[in-house]
Write a structure and sequence with these properties.
disordered N terminus
């Protein structure tokens, strides 16, 4: 019996050992160097029979496990000749040391004469004509992909050194993550990714898996940058033929890509095109985005001799901003491709004709195949030759018809990303098999540091459930001053907000203190586990406000429930408000102008109120909103004339807005008001991520219709008015050359029997050097309340964002991420005298600021000028309290 027990213990272990031995019984390993002896890092190793692959490490070494058998192995590296070797793998690893020869580029006997076209343009016209074909030629494909991402902060400002080093961020630390995914593409626009492994060290389980980058250079744009294979490429790029070479049986052309105007969102580098296939062989490109440098390298291989697909891609990014210097790398290798061709596009031989050069032949083709309603498959089957323009147009129409036939034609892409439950449990045996590049010592050290920090954080989390974000137990007295957050349970938190305040002439200095309780509910889709869970949240926030000059404590209570489609907010108390509820002047800006220059632009009144607001997304294209308010409103006077400079005291103005149409003072009154509105995006396009449909920004104009009413004699209300307003807002992109935004609002008081100044229609004026309002809706020089109206109005704001205009014609300026803006704002009310502003600005200074200059006119007569400083318009910033 004892012997049998021992056998039961030993036998599974022996079988496991034999399985491991068999799995790694053989393969290939070695080094890849250039003909000058340089080790080639990230060179590609590709097995034709299995579509498996590997890549070399920084020392040029590789290792790839293979079952016994005969294989054709391709060794590739950009700029070097591809080498094909037939190998026989047995039970041991076969040592193969490869020396790749520098690519010999043979120039064709082409002489480019003055005024004649470089042959690169013919090659690129054919490749561009067939680009859509390559995106549609497969019904589906699957592959396994290994992804490694890493980043490093190379430098940071001295003043923040201690803070970030406490978080484990040091100059020599490499942040690294590795993952393995199974990916699937289904035409026309569906992508699926399942993460089956995430590499971790020790007890670290916080590593987020990388996502595969599905972007394609066959698309007109990739990450908002114009692809060299875009139909508009000739407007953005110059091409130069650098010669050709043979890669096995394929003729490859080397094309230099140079932007006609360097700067954001254009590529520069080398692209290699496969002759006759007119597909990408490989590429080495770089671009700039907001002053950050991006570099892309890709290598393609013919899969089953039917389609050229990427087997290796690398991305590099580096940049500096506000003293931070960082770099990042992304590396992906793909293997085990399984492809299914699109039967409509299976054409054994297709000859693409350059209609610009081969004019006579193109005319013959056009005459022969002039039938307009001929289907793509029918047309391609009836003739092997096709003009590049004709092919592009047919494929474009084909894509359009295919999209219409989908269940949701307004959805432009659908992506599913899930992480397998066993992804974090893969052992070292698994990783030694799948990792195509061995980790460097620096990368190994990065994992060790991450594991150490993760262990410390885990220890901090153990113990009391009431714990602040710094890991200290319970409440600390200092939290009253600096604020902090506390985890009460897995679904609830309590937060003490950092106290803040400011100065205004009504309250003097004020202090605002807020605490919040948050409760979350997570609802998972029981029918579809791939869908992202839906989250609902309840917030309860008491807010206290103390006015030192008034010696008054006031406050309000805010209760809000929200989920992805609904928001319901109840708020009430005693609080001061700006006459314009859109708050055109930020309290911090008003504090600066009041204390330093004696300009108290903010005008306030007080209300005892109860507000109820409701917002509901009816569907993806329509949103309904409504608000109801009952308030007792009181006029306030200045109680403080404090300023840093005593001579500025006389600059202070009364706390009463100045308006052309009417007096703004008012007696204490009661108001019951209500509003309803509808937002429509009728042509909205979407993307789907894990079952959640999200809007594609600016794919449809935003149309708004609002109605606001003051109810007379209801609950003692003193107001009686009706206001209706319609608006439209749209952004139009002209490629990368520029972006045009327009915002139009028009409205009319149908009834203005009785209303007070806060009930008027107000506009986003500005009189301070710092502007915090929407750049496409806010005026730069207009008084905050001078043209407020209780009659009809029209407001128009137009904003054009130039990539290249005046000073941005200087390449070094563009490469810094600086862009130029031109804007016009117009307001028509019975008293505004066609108020107009015209302005010019520099956007993206130090990547986060914008500086503007503007001139104002009334009825065409010059009124004023000024300069403004704001946050760059590329950022969406909420300046609200």
């Amino acid at each position: 019996m004892a012997v049998m027990n021992r056998i039961k213990i030993i036998l599974p272990a022996l079988l496991f050992f034999l399985a491991i031995t068999n799995a790694f019984s053989g393969g290939i390993r070695g080094t890849i160097k250039g003909d000058d002896g340089t080790a080639l890092a990230f060179a590609s190793v590709f097995v034709k029979q299995t579509a498996a692959g590997a890549a070399t490490d920084i020392n040029g070494r590789f290792e790839l496990a293979l079952p016994p058998g005969q294989y054709d192995i391709l060794f590739q590296y950009l700029g070097y000749e591809t080498q094909l070797q037939k190998v026989t793998v047995g039970t041991d690893f076969l040592e193969i040391n490869i020396t790749l020869k520098t690519q010999v580029i043979i120039l064709q006997n082409v002489v480019v004469k003055a005024g004649k076209e470089d042959p690169a343009y013919t090659i690129m016209r054919k490749a561009i004509g067939k680009a859509n074909y390559h995106t549609q030629q497969l019904d589906s494909y699957t592959a396994k992909v290994y992804i490694k991402g890493k980043g490093q902060v190379r430098d940071y400002p001295w003043w923040i050194k201690k803070t970030i080093e406490k978080e484990g961020i040091k100059k020599d630390r490499v942040f690294i993550s590795e993952s393995v995914s199974e990916i699937k593409f289904m035409r026309p626009n569906k992508f699926e990714e399942k993460v089956i492994a995430v590499y971790t060290k020790g007890k670290d389980r916080n590593t987020s898996p990388n996502q595969f980058v599905f972007g394609s250079f066959y698309e007109p744009e990739i990450a908002e940058a114009v692809s060299p294979l875009s139909p508009k490429a000739f407007s953005y790029y110059k091409f130069e033929y650098l010669g050709s070479f043979k890669d096995n049986k394929y003729e490859i052309s080397k094309i230099k890509v140079t932007p006609r105007s360097r700067g954001d969102n254009v590529f520069e580098g080398i692209i290699f095109i496969v002759e006759d296939w007119w597909s990408i062989h490989s590429l080495d490109m770089q671009t700039v985005k907001l002053g950050f440098k991006f570099k892309v390298k890709q290598i393609y291989n013919p899969i089953e001799e039917k389609a050229w697909l990427p087997i290796s891609q690398q991305f590099f990014v580096e940049g500096k901003v506000l003293g931070f210097d960082f770099t990042g790398e992304y590396f992906a290798t793909l293997k085990n491709y399984k492809i299914k061709p699109n039967p409509a596009l299976v054409i054994p031989e297709m000859k693409v004709i350059d209609a610009k050069i081969e004019k006579e032949e193109a005319k013959k083709i056009e005459k022969k195949f002039s039938k307009k309603d001929q289907q793509l498959q029918e047309r391609l089957a009836s003739g092997k030759e096709v003009a590049n323009k004709e092919l592009r147009q047919m494929l474009k129409e084909y894509e359009k018809q295919e999209q219409k036939q989908t269940k949701e034609p307004e959805v432009l892409s659908e992506r599913t990303f899930i992480v397998d439950s066993l992804a974090y449990k893969k052992d070292s045996v698994f990783w030694s098999e799948v990792r195509p590049v061995a980790l460097s010592k620096q990368e190994e050290r990065g994992y060790v540091i991450t594991d150490s920090i993760s262990a410390v954080e885990k220890q901090k989390e153990e113990g009391d459930t009431l714990r602040n974000k710094k890991g200290k137990k319970g409440f600390q007295l200092t939290d009253i001053i600096v604020g902090d957050s506390y985890k009460l349970s897995k679904t609830s938190d309590f937060r003490i907000h950092t106290p803040y305040g400011g100065f205004n002439t009504v309250e003097g200095f004020n202090l605002i203190y807020r605490t919040s309780y948050y409760k979350r509910w997570v609802i998972k889709d029981k029918k579809d586990s791939t869908k992202k869970a839906r989250t609902s949240r309840l917030e309860i926030s008491p807010i206290a406000r103390y006015a030192f000059s008034r010696e008054l404590l006031s406050g309000k209570l805010r209760v809000e429930y929200r989920n992805a489609d609904t928001r319901l907010t109840l708020e009430g108390g005693r609080y001061v408000e700006q006459y314009n509820s859109d708050e055109p002047i930020h309290s911090f800006v008003n504090t600066l102008t009041s204390l330093f220059s004696g300009d108290n632009w903010m005008k306030l009144y007080e209300q005892n109120f109860v507000d109820l607001k409701y917002r509901q997304r009816v569907n993806e294209k329509f949103t309904f909103h409504s608000s109801w308010s009952f308030s007792r409103r009181t006029e306030l006077d200045n109680t403080s004339n404090y300023t840093f400079f005593s001579e500025n005291k006389e600059h202070y103005r009364p706390n009463a807005p100045v308006n052309i149409e009417s007096q703004t003072g008012f007696e204490t009154n009661t108001a019951f008001t209500g509003a309803i509105g509808l937002e429509a995006r009728p042509w909205q396009k979407f993307v789907i991520r894990n079952g959640f449909k999200s809007r594609i920004q600016n794919s449809s104009p935003l149309l708004t219709l609002d109605y606001r009413k003051g109810f007379n004699s209801v609950l003692g209300s003193d107001v009686n008015f009706d206001l209706i307003e319609a608006g439209i807002r749209q952004q139009v992109k002209f490629g990368i050359r520029g972006t045009f935004d327009i915002n139009v609002k028009a409205g009319k008081f149908l009834n203005a029997d009785k209303l007070y100044f806060m009930d008027f229609k107000h506009f986003l004026g500005n009189k301070t050097p710092i502007i915090t309002t929407d750049p496409v809706a806010g005026f730069r020089l207009m008084d905050y309340y001078l043209y407020s109206t209780k009659d009809q109005y029209l407001s128009v704001s137009a904003h054009y964002h130039f990539r290249k205009f005046l000073i941005t014609r200087i390449p070094v300026i563009r490469l810094m991420g600086v862009q130029e803006n031109f804007f016009v704002n117009y307001l028509a009310t019975p008293s505004s005298k066609n108020y107009t502003e015209v302005g010019y600005g520099l956007d993206g200074i130090l990547r986060i600021f914008r500086i503007e200059g503007a001139v104002s006119f009334t009825n065409g007569t010059y009124q004023d000028y000024g300069f403004r400083l704001g946050i760059s318009s590329i950022f969406s910033v909420n300046f609200g309290d």
